[in-house]
Amino acid sequence: MTSGPAVAGVKRLEELGVPRRTIWRRCEPGGVWRMLLPGVVLLGNGEPTDEQRIEASLVFAREGAVLTGVPALRRYGMRRLPDFGDVHVLVPAGRAITSTGFVQVERTRRLPTPLSRAGVPTAPVPRAVIDAARRTRDSDSIVAMMAEATQERHCLPQALAAEIDGRSRFDGRLLRALVPILGGAHSVAEADAWHLWRRSGLPEFRWNVKVFDAEGRFVAKPDGWCDEIGFAWEVDSRGYHADGDHFRATLARNARYAAAGIVVLQTLPSRIRTEPDVVLNELRAAFRSAQRRPRPDVHIG
Description:
Helix content is 44%, strand content 18%. By secondary structure, it is an alpha+beta fold. Helix 5 (125-134) packs antiparallel against helix 6 (139-151), helix 5 (125-134) crosses helix 7 (157-165) and helix 6 packs across helix 8.
């Protein structure tokens, strides 16, 4: 699991014939080994890598421990994660062990069946997301994690809902963060747009659905879509859509909207937070404009 010096428990080293006094001597300041956690030794004297910290945490937590939270999500390739410096592990509820150093130990009666990720017993994505979210104060970070997990097909939104529902201590923050994801939002900006739409009093919007013209040609995948009148809402960040190929792609998308007769409103994500009432008025005005013309011959697929 690691490259470089190995990690070993003191008991295991003794089983291999290394006297305890030798272990302590080698772990003294300036020695050739380091004591990373109580009873867990790095067989080298450098700074431990992230992988060695994870291995040390699992050795410390003993057999049956499961990696969860942010370190687990990194093993699935997720990127939009809070910056936690510790290692979060789950252990059976009856195990007498507490957090120390860089390892956060959580005793649980709902120990998940782990998946092996590069040899590490790792919590499934829904459990790891919710475990990370419970320790995250920033609501945007929670939404970003949930959105990435579902958009990148690591899990279904319903699996996150089931994980929240299965907890003995209900956390309303987590459900509030998940609601727009269940509605189809794929990002923090889209979640903000979803909440603003809920305030608008407008008919049902669909989120991130594909729209095709009368000949079946792809038009776009708008952030928000009102199928009743054929109206699109795009939450376009300046940094993304103004850059090179993205700018050309946005112009091409807007040309397809125009050719299909679709009214589209483009909104900067930041404005939804800085001037929500202004954006809300723009959304309603664009909707009324779309209502006044015949519905274009387009469909979702």
